[in-house]
Amino acid sequence: MQNTMTQPPLSQDRSPSPGGGLLFLREEELRIAQDMMFFAMRDLTESADALLARLGYGRAHHRTLHWITRKPGLKVGELLTILGITKQSLTRVLGPLIREGYVAQIPGQQDRRQRLLSLTEKGMALERQLFEAQRECLLTAYREAGGPAVEGFRRVLRGLTRQQGRDYIDGLEHQRAARVSRPGP
Predict the structure, then answer these.
(1) Assign residue 51 a region: left if phi > 0, alpha if psi is -120 to 50, beta otherwise?
(2) Which of 51, 147, 180, 181 is most buried, by the most CB atoms less than 10 A from its CB?
(3) Residue 183 binned pLDDT confidence (cut-offs 50, 70, 90)
(4) Has residue 7 got a pLDDT over 60?
(5) Rg of the Cα trace of the chain?
(6) Structure pTM?
(7) All domains of the chain in start order, with CATH
């Protein structure tokens, strides 16, 4: 059995980072974590997948709707980068969503060649249904795990994410913090 040795980074106060006590992770422990990720994704996506299947859509359509919801006016090029797919693949996913009235596409104001994506009312309703199908699963898991575990889970997810995704999430966190710190009316 192969061991993977980790050297946890030390914070400014020289105390070990969360998880710092795990100096040796055996292959079997990593395999169990991988198993858990596969089961978690299967179970999290199950109800949304069923809804999408009734419409003749799949997970790529869900991801597309999710990211357009998160950033209305999203440029097609940005969506390609976020999804990490080819233009041809995006065309196969985006085409039906536009034709069936879930996504609106308008030219950019400064550069008319840009295509900016937003959800229509029909698209917002579908994305909301998909979110609600997964919301309870996430809430239940978060409540069961508790605050410190949720923070640890977020750190693990961040560690699994490449820099481009981390930068995007950091931007969302910064926007959220700015909204929270703004005084109300």
Answers:
(1) alpha
(2) 51
(3) low
(4) no
(5) 20
(6) 0.79
(7) 24-152 (1.10.10.10)
